[in-house]
Model the fold of this input.
Amino acid sequence: MSRLTIEASTPLCLLQDAGRFGVRHLGVTQGGAADWRSMSWANWLLGNGLDAPVIEITLGGFTVVAEDDCVLALAGADLGARVDDEPLAPWRSFRLNKGQRLQFTQPLLGARAYLAAPGGFDAPKVLGSSSTVVREELGGLDGMGHALSKGASLNYSGNSVMLLRKLTADQRPDLKLDTPLDLVLGAQIGEFSGQSLFDAFNSVWNVDSRADRMGIRLLGPALQYQGKPMISEGIPLGAVQVPPDGQPIVLLNDRQTIGGYPRLGALTPLALARLAQCLPGAQVRLRPVVQEVAHREQVEYLRLFLNH
Amino acid sequence: MKLRVEVVALDCLMVRLFDEIAEANMPWMLAASESLRAAFGKDLIDLVPSYTTLMVHYDLTALSPTQARELIAEALIDLSPNARTRGKCHVLPVWYDLSVGPELSLLSQRSGLAMEEVIRRHSEREYQVFALGFAPGFAFMGLVDEALAAPRLSTPRKKVAAGSVGIAERQTAAYPVVSPGGWNLIGRTPAKLFDRNRDGYSLMQPGDTVRFEAVDHAEFINLGGDDTPLEAQA
Done:
């Protein structure tokens, strides 16, 4: 068993895996890494299952010291990581020798970095998952939904892969936002005014500072829903709901399980992974996509993880 | 029943069974849930029931949207509610008291009924669990006697005690854990509504029925209830 000790942390540094499934009918949220793609690559670099527990570091402020020689992997945002005084770029596995310090300082590109360990970090499974949901007091190192805290030990049990790897240019996700975010059109799309439909897909949307693991608010022209009030129903990951003020909210992993606001539809998993890396003030566009096409693209993307 | 299947996300479809909230929906909802679970088997990731709909979240690596639609169509042919698909019936003890249910007086004023009559009307009905949501184990139940219906508080409380029983419009619910909340509180139950160590986790499941039973302070304490007044916890 190898060990890291946390020297600094914030309420936004959380143990996460792919999420909690099979219990949403009980009101239990999905949870899981907000950027599933970066989590998957971090695990892939070490030969782990893609859903092994990782550390999600949002914005920085996280430091660990190695108590043993370790091989770890880093993917996702560039949060100005340093091993002692050496800068460490993401999308690679790396050595952290006993006594060395890994520090995340500030966001340089993207918002969330994922740190993986061989076999995944040790944590109890609660309702089938180690995902930390603070609001529901589920998951994390002690199973009670606490964020990672200073002084805590991080353990893992897998064997270190000796060969260090880094993603090729083809594999490495682009965290910049030059292309629009794909949105699968939902059933209420026809209930928005014509002008609102035009605005939804032809405007620049600003990512609001009101953004957390439940949802990210987008600021732009007010969208107008003209349908009947809705009865609460299940909400999928990535749903773009429009409350009465007309400003859309993209619902993320820790969203409530049911809700009654009309929706434009839902972002695709790849679009959601990109949005999860946006800082407040970022500008995004939306693009409608058909469910079958989005499905084929997702299946195609998942094939990348089959190469070793 | 006017069944529709709608797109909600890349790997989710909404099965819409009804247009209005009604207690009579529930046997159909349960039968449809059971049939969908059987049809999707291991390819079902989650099935989220709510009042009039069932959201099917399936494994996109196993099924295309077209295949998922076909499974849904097959599962719902010749659907009929039967005795097997009836939910459980729960009796929840409640200590109705102003110290833990301050809106008892508000509901009494609104309805012109004495507080004892408000309590009697709340505890005489058998309610359906329409959906769970808001928090793990939080069951939306109804329908409450029309005279007791009241809108949510204009300013939600930052902290509502675990076990608090409330009313919002014609629905009633009990808070499983301490949380913010805007329902009109009328009492408190000592029942543990969500327990990670219990089989099935949540005491109440969608489609179950629930009756509230008024208990006095001594019995509430006897059953393990916490009588700390609401204001003292805020």
Observations:
- The helical segments of chain A are 36-45, 194-202, 269-275, 291-303.
